[in-house]
Predict the structure.
Amino acid sequence: MFSNKEVLETIAMVEKEHLDIRTITLGLSLLTCIRDTAEETANKVYDLVCKKGENIVKTAQTLSGEYGIPIVNKRISVTPVSIITAAFPEKAPLVGKALDNAAKTLGIDFLGGYSALVHKATADYERIFIRTIPEVLASTERLCSSVNVGSTKSGINMEAVKMLGEVFKEAAFLTKDKDGIGAAKLVAFCNAVEDNPFMAGAFHGVGEADTVVNVGVSGPGVVKHALEQLPEADLTEVAEQIKRTAFKITRAGQLVAKEASKRLNAQFGIVDLSLAPTPAMGDSVAQILEEIGIQTVGGHGTTAALALLNDAVKKGGVMASSRVGGLSGAFIPVSEDIGMIRAAEQGAITLDKLEAMTCVCSVGLDMIAIPGDTPATTIAAMIADEAAIGMINNKTTAVRIIPAPGKTVGDEVSFGGLLGRAPIMPVHNCDSSRLINRGGNIPAPIHSFKN
Amino acid sequence: MRAVVTVTGKDKKGIIAKISAFLSEKGANIQDISQTILGEYFAMIMIVDISAATEELSTLAGECAKLGKEIGMSVYMQHEDIFNAMHTV
């Protein structure tokens, strides 16, 4: 039985420290929706998503009421659309629009899975599909897209990397009246996971059951508050405190995930142990790193502090959940974290430091605005760098970068809501086009041959 | 099914009376009460059985929050499982 102190602790976590369940994501297989034509397939997709997802918002609200913990986002991820539209890839946007309409009907903010998996090579239908992404992201509101361009097992598909550089530019350009928000709904992955509940990179893998509930927990504010109680502690104690806190947060996520899957008639998938910030004050991963002892995030020591944080979150969380998965780690999106925004405004954090940080935490260069005139080959080179980190280190890495049309260093982009705002960060001006234009594959590393 | 009712805020007259009248009206049975006053700060934690309650827990929780606003206190009603999950291994 819990004590009174523990009851009050939980309430303080919600009231003052932004404890929440960040997302309940319903993963849906669309494989049964494939028909002879794009029109029929799109209709079937709309019907399936609306039918299976009809209770997600209501269930989340009820659970939130019963447990007294906010459930911030209700989302859906689907089978990569490139697979279900393989027979008519030029008409894949019809399915994209059907998914966006379904998201609106259900009242969910994002739906992920306008995706392609091309980590080894690009099939003809995938080449056509990937070219549809910018237009689809510009003409839809809630649809998110991702492309897996590499993996530890297969190496990096540099043709896809080059294409993605161009796709990011075009996605931003087609939404130039909204600071290039199209690019903020697109992720280039290496080692993408099939059960990620977080947007914009969520999709429902083909190895999954047909209906699955994945839950993403959060709580950077709770971790920061816990560390504030130990201002003089050594780093061993800091790691222990983070583990204990992550355990509690994850247990809340596990409970919600189990109940939600029961009520939504879905399989319980995974709990994603990520620390996901929001632009709200006190809900920042950067501020945890500063609490550990870096004056401003981006300073020397940031990578070490982040490594400690990321590992301790996982260790605490793993014991709290029967099944963990997804991305599971600390997120460091620039525009969605008040501490990151400040550091970027002061010039304290650079793209190079962010890249270093992605070696030790989940995901990668996330929600970073760069000058709109950055060449596509430079963006492709950034994707290649991140993919290389992921490939060599057996981890997921990603790029979600916004080449803000018409803007340059000193300007700012603002998307509002959870996507936040970000100052334009400088990129290296040297030319990487020769590397990118070579094409081919970067071979898989020797340590991938484990058979 | 049991829920935990937590009432916190600045101490004043009639808090327990109002909360227990509300719970009784809704068919909730109070099984345990503990209360502390630290200076002017009031904290009360009740364990209530809501198996025979007239409304769903999520509705009752919303009404508790509303009642809290009326009496100028913070009032929560939560399923006991959340505390068991977070604070026991």
